[in-house]
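Suppose you are handed a protein chain with no further information: no name, no annotation, nothing but its sequence. What can you learn? This example shows the usual starting point.
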Amino acid sequence: MLRPDFQCDIVVGGVTIQVEMEPGCWIGNGRLAILASGKDVGGDTYSSTREFNKATDADVKRLLKKIKLAPCSVTGCNGRFIAGERFELYNKERHCEPHRRQALKERDAAEQVRQKAKQAAADTKQKAKGFTYKATVWIHRDGRSDTYVVTYFKTKPTKDELTTLAKKHRSKIVDDFRIQKL
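A reasonable first move is to predict its three-dimensional structure. Written in structure tokens, the prediction is:
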């Protein structure tokens, strides 16, 4: 009988791949699935149509044989990535892990530039309307993702005004804010 804590290392194309049961595949009538990952080749999953509680060692061996590495699409790169069932969703560019991480960093940097430009335009518009201060109040609720509220003021806001704003938004922490002069 298979165990949820199954782990092994295999070598595929000269690269050591760590394999473990995909988290949660053994819950209920979950399907047998493994997660394969390795240094600089990323990770991906392989699944079976067999239910976990009916799976055998032979089913796992069949999944292990499916693990393949594919070449990085970056010209001149000799890197590879694990080409499992989900790489088309998460690695459409077909990059090795170092190139995939670099592309993510570049996309993130470009998005930050866009967001800063958008915020600068909003600040300029509000300043033209006579506002002189901007307050950012972070809203913290029951372990959910934090969010924030941006409000513009014509005079410097007081701590009481900002804590009242945080309370209005049902924040558990009411003194987490930043004031900026426009």
